[in-house]
Amino acid sequence: MFRGIAKATALLAALVFLIACSPKLDWRTVQSPQERYTALFPGKPDKLDRRIPYLDQEFLQVLEAVKIDDDIYSVSTIQLPANQSATLSKLLSQLQANLIDRAKASGGDVAVEDAFYKTADKQRLSTKDYLIDLKSNGKSQQLMRVRWINRVGPNGDSWIYQISVLHTSAATENAKTFFAKEEYENFFTDFVPE
C-alpha cells in the first residue's frame, strides 16, 4: 500500500513539474523567402494578404501574426516595384503617421528610441523603435512596440517591414518598461531582413 501511494505521489510530482516547465511560448524560426526575411515567432503565425490603397494605386501587404495570451506578434511586408521607389518615403511616413496620430488622438503617449537590427549578411543598421501607450478615457488600454525597416532588393524593389507587438489588455507599466522583457526583445532582435 505504501508503494502505491509513493508511486502515485511521485507520478503527481513529475506531472506538476512537467506542467510547470512547459513553455508558454513555442519559439520557432519562420523563413519567408517571398517577403525576404527570417523571424523568430513565439508560435506558429497565420499569414494573410490584402491590398492597401495608396493614392491612385494599390500595394500588396502580407501579414504574418500570432496571438499568445494578450499579445499579438506581427510582421507586415509591403513590396514596392523599382519604378515606384519615389513613393517609398511618402508611404512609410503615412504608415507611421496613421498609427502615431491614432495614439495621440486617444490621449496616448509615443516614445521613440534608437535601435539596431541585423541583416542576413550580418550588417548592423540603425532604426527607431516606437513605444506607444494607447489610452481610452485617460487610462492605458493597450501597449505597442513597433519598428519600421525599409530595404532595397537586388532588383531595385523596395521592401517596407513593420515589426510589432500589441499588448491588448491594460498594463500598469509604461510601454518602455513592459517591452524590455526578454520575450519581446527576442522577437525584435531576431527579425532579419535580406
Automatic annotation (TrEMBL):
Name of the protein: Lipoprotein
Taxonomic lineage: Bacteria, Pseudomonadati, Pseudomonadota, Betaproteobacteria, Burkholderiales
